[in-house]
Amino acid sequence: MNISTAEKLSGLSSKTIRDYEQAGLIHPLRQSNGYRTYSQEDIETLCFIRHARAVDFSLAQIAQLLTLRHDPHRASVDVKELVGKHIARLTEKINDLNSMKSTLEQWYNKCNGNESPECAIINGLNQYEGKDVHN
After folding, report:
1. pLDDT value at position 112?
2. pLDDT tens-digit profile of 78-121?
3. 21: domain range?
4. Cα(130)–Cα(28) distance, rounded to whole angstroms?
5. I need a surface site. Which of 21, 62, 82, 130 has the fewest CB within 10 A?
6. Dihedrals φ, ψ of 22, to 5°?
7. What is the pTM of this model?
8. 93 in any annotated domain
């Protein structure tokens, strides 16, 4: 099948599909005219990648997952370990985002939002580790 069919079946854009090929995650056949031909296995791999990206796996992690997926002798403990590390990174990311949100909410709530040039948000952004950069 051609790339437009692969797009429809995988839910990915042709650019994304080509990017995944360039990253070595899929290996479509090349015809003599240079066109790519995608197999059912390629489509299944693209859907796998799309699902993995939806839960924020990196391309390097996806490459590891694909290697494990294709290994009939894989140990599920290896997959679980990789996912456990990913969950820990996501938890850290969530904590960082919550901290950023809290800081922004504090500045936002302190800002009068009126015609005055005084702005707690600008003042907060002017701070570096609790110290005013202008001092």
Report:
1. 94
2. 999 999 999 999 999 999 999 999 999 999 999 999 999 999 99
3. 1-64
4. 54
5. 130
6. -60, -35
7. 0.80
8. no
